[in-house]
Structure formats: structure tokens, C-alpha cells
Here is the input.
Amino acid sequence: MPSFQYHLFKPLMRIARWSQGNFPVQDANAFVRFRQLADRVANVAMRPPRDVKAESDSPGGVTGDWLIPTNAPGNPVMLFLHGGGIAFGWNNPLRRELAYLARFAGLRAFGVDYHLIPEYLYPVAHDECYAVYRALLQQGKQIVLIGESSGAALALATLLRAKAEGLSQPLLCALISPVVDYGFKDARIWQSDDPFAHPKFTAEMHNHYVAGNDTTLPDLSPVSADLSGIAPLYVIAGENEIMRSEVDCLTQAAQRYNVPMETLLCPHVWHSWHALAPQLPEATRALEVLGTAISQRISK
Here is the structure.
């Protein structure tokens, strides 16, 4: 059964969806103003846990933060590619989310602060995420690659770029509420009644980043590419969320190319529910399950 907190949060998610539905999505600068306001509020209200240390770094010349739990080893590490439609960036809520995941997995994790629209368009975010991945490999790191929402397509594109260049695949690629096609060509997304995420708002953020490029490119629709030889996938998503059909598309592609894939669908919850840990028990549980799955995979 859903938690008490679930019933408190869900009406707030409905308000957020309504706001997204009335947002001036054609104006890229409106996303900037919204981002600046949201970050000012969220960076004060949502801070990482104190027992996870944060250290700034710039592997591959790309800035970000290491989130380091107590007694975490130096290797392997997690590489985290955040979501937000390439419109919303690295902030305290994301640091908090990654800190909890790092704690549950018992690993240090690097969150990439890639550049955002409207100043930076495709392929900037892709190039920066791949640069960090390549730099960590050059440092001798074994990597668990994690992509959430928009970051899932960045993660899959990173795997495909690594395969094309003959670089090592990560130990595991974990995807949370994954976007796998920046063209949003599956009609089921437009029919979604996700309590939080509005389809028009979601798609238009990505359209600004795509900037008229062909959305069948492997970078922008990795689910349409040849996935053979990529790392095993572990996918976690909400049962009722907007990216539910994207999970189905990825499942079919993984089966087509014999990619091992394990999927967990969490009941009742909406897109990005996991970011509400620790206030929402369902969110904390999702990060705990994912962290445990990662820990078990690397211990094999």
C-alpha cells in the first residue's frame, strides 16, 4: 500500500503537472528563468546528508562533484548522468539523491555538471558526459554508469560511443525512469497520465536541445541503434509514470540484441519520485534497492 507521505505528495505533483501544461514551452529562456528560481529554492530546502562528503572535480575537463560515503573504496566508482531535459542542471536535490544512492551502494559517485540549453545545444551534453567516462577509464576506474530520465539516453549514447571506439564497457549501466528516444516517437508517451510529468513540457525541453538534428541518430535515439555488446542494463521506473512506454521500447531493443536487462517497476509512483528521498518512503526504498543491486553486481 502507498505510504502516508505518498498521499501528501501526490496532490502536489498534480499541481506541478498543471503548471507544466501551461508553461510557455516554445521559449527556451523561460526554462532558464524557471531553472534559476527552482534552484534558489531547492538548494536551500534540499541538502545532501552530512555523512556523505562532497568534493568538486573536473575529469576530462568537465565539472561536477564526487559524493563520497564513509569508507567507500577508490575503485570501482559510479558515474551519474542526471535528468532534467538538458534544461535543469546539477543542484542540491540531485546531490542529495546521488548521496543516498552512493551510501546505499557503498561507492563513491561522480555527478556530471554538463552544460544546458539554450546556450549549449546538441551534442554538447553528450560530448561532456562521454569525456568524463573516457577520463575515468584512463584513470583506471571501473565504472557503474547511471542515467536518470534524460540522462539515460546520455548513458546509452556513452555506451555506444565507447563501443565504437573500442573502449571498455562499464560493469553495469543502471537507468532510472529512462528516456531512450529524444524524438519521443512512441505515441504512448503523449497519452500518459503521469501525476507529475506533462508530455508537452517533457518533449519541448528536449526539442530545444536537439535543435533540429535527426532524432534517429544513435546519440538521440539509442534505443533504435545496434545495442549488441553494450553493458548489462538494470532499469527501475514507476509503474504509472510517463516513461513507462520507454522502458518497453528499451526492453524490446535489449532482447533484439541479446543485452542482459533486469527491470523493476515500482507500484503507484510517478516520474522522478526517487528524487524525494528521504521524505517519501517509496523514493528511499527505490534508491536502496538500486544501491543494493549495484553492490551485488560489482561483488560478483
About this structure: Residues 4-21 form the longest helix (18 residues).
